Amino acid sequence: MIEELKAKLEAEVNRLQHELNVTLPNEIRKAVELGDLRENSEYKAALERQQFVQARLGQLRQRLSKLSQIDVTQIPTDRVGLGSRVTVEDVKTGSTEVYHLVFGDAVEFEEGHVTMASPIGRALIGKAVGEVALLKLPTMTRQLKIVELWTIHQQVTIEEDS
Question: Looking only at Cα atoms, what is the longest distance across the chain?
Fold first, then answer.
């Protein structure tokens, strides 16, 4: 999971680096050739895009640096943590839901992904099978019992076996 996210971010870095070093200089050069820069919208747009790309590259590099500092051995093997897939049962209604705890960059809501910083992520972190997590919402508090847990360690083992 961490390696997949690194690859995704590195691909975006490479694409933006190409845009910054090849595409945007060409656009700026063409805009300069058009003449008066004070009223040249193409020139202004290219400069604004250049600033945006530089800022995004800075964010991506910082994120990649943080990812490379993560020690997977420090993630618990029997409790909810980064990369865990958790099946919970609402104590009140009996309905079940499945969540996958991910980084903010990897969120795909249609697949049940939640960030660790989200309210549900914070409620689930550190819980084991059988424990009840209290999810405090503005209108109510939900009690979610952990009924099944797959940690990042178990998922890596399954991926290696396939």
Answer: 71
